[in-house]
Amino acid sequence: MRQYRIRGGNRLLGELKIGGAKNAVLPILAAVCLNESETVIHNCPRISDTFDSIEILNRVGCETDFCQNTLKVRASDLSYEIPEDFAKKMRSSVLFMGAFLARCGRVILPLPGGCSIGTRAIDLHIEGLEAMGAKIRRGDGKLFCETDGLKGAKIKLTFASVGATENLMIAATRAHGETVIENAAREPEIADLAEFLKKLGADIRGAGTSTIIVQGKQSLCAPVAHTIIPDRIVAATHLVAAAMTGGEIVLKDVRPFDLMPVVACLKEMGCFLRCDGDDVHLRAPERLRAVPRIETRVHPGFPTDMQAQFVAALTLADGQSEVTETVFENRYSHVGELRKMGANIRLTADKRTFVINGTNALRGATIAAHDLRCGAALILAALAADGESIVQNASYVERGYESIERDLTHLGADILLENSG
Ligand code: UD1
Prior knowledge:
The chain is 31% helix and 25% strand. The chain is globular. The strands form six sheets. Strands 21-22-1-23 form a four-stranded mixed beta sheet, with helices on one face. Strands 2-14-16-15 form a four-stranded mixed beta sheet, with helices on one face. It has a four-stranded mixed beta sheet with strand order 4-5-3-13, covered by helices on one side. It has helices at residues 22-31, 48-59, 84-87, 95-104, 123-131, 162-172, 188-200, 232-244, 260-268, 307-314, 333-340, 372-384, 394-398, 404-410; strands spanning 2-7, 13-17, 38-42, 63-67, 70-74, 106-110, 135-139, 142-146, 154-156, 178-182, 203-205, 211-215, 224-227, 248-252, 272-276, 279-283, 294-295, 320-324, 344-347, 353-357, 366-368, 388-392, 414-419. The chain starts with a strand and ends with a strand. The chain contains 14 helices and 23 strands. It is an alpha+beta fold. Uridine-diphosphate-N-acetylglucosamine binds next to helix 1, helix 5 and helix 6.
């Protein structure tokens, strides 16, 4: 088990380049299975979810070569059973369903795992693929899926699910005829997936809007090189870190437009922010201000993946703030840990709304990450706290941050990744 040892109190200062987005690379690592030629992916983050996806690719028969941040994949002959141990680790393994149905006409997929932040149903994925002609049977903790040819369909999602939109878009690229996905999710990572699929030869319009139209093709085969977009959640996490430590940082190449909901909120908290081309400059105020209300929403609303980090920041803000989580029903595990550091947070009975009364200081403590963003929030709290903290369960953080200790050290933080006990 690994843990972070953090001595709080250092102001974060300096410049940082942000790497490729976890939520862009994971669907693309499923979509590579469509390509019968070689795929090269640049700016691939070296996070554990990437390594686990690559292991799935290796086990189904792909040839892969991952060097620094460039991954080469050749998906020539594929078996159609996704290995259970790796599928269970990651929610995004569900995206192999659409890719394999499209490429092989069948797949056996162990029910996917991932961070415990809600029920994380996959009914929308299944209903959409069934509407396209897939036959899906559940048994023995697995999904047995097959089709004698996917057909285009008109699918209206009852919720703008990121994963379901991606799965259906991937499947539709090789379906017979036209697929229309209505109420599609609009996250920037969906547009990045569409850009990748188009390079393979797919015909997709509207990705990044709520209606996506895909004309299916008989085969997709092209040598492709693609660069993953920067990780807006990693970028936003560092902005909040600087805001909480009274710091001043410049993030390079981060596509500021993708960060707008977070930037707006940080401004409301009293931070100075300037976007200059692809860079974002933040200077923290003497003391952060409370925000009357934040509600997580699908993009372009406030991202659920930044909820925990903002809750951590608001524990130090002047006044009372209220944050409501509307996307996942179980995303509150950071609350108990932040309280150990002296935070004043009240949770409503449905555990969806956090009422935060800012304190002047947090104190260092031994605290444990219970999921990826909970871990990020605790690291931020520890950076701003008085004294030393231990953040246990570093492996959650490593799912989505490529060496967060390296990046924070670069900005002047006192943080070490170490083995516990
Ligand atoms: C993706 C992101 C994750 C982010 C989330 C919301 C990746 C790899 N992960 O997760 O970081 O927190 O979007 O922005 O991109 N739902 C259903 N039925 C379904 C699908 C989803 O009820 O078939 C519900 C889920 O239980 C959840 C909500 O919809 O409450 C959001 O899920 P979804 O948008 O699908 O998120 P993910 O794709 O899992």
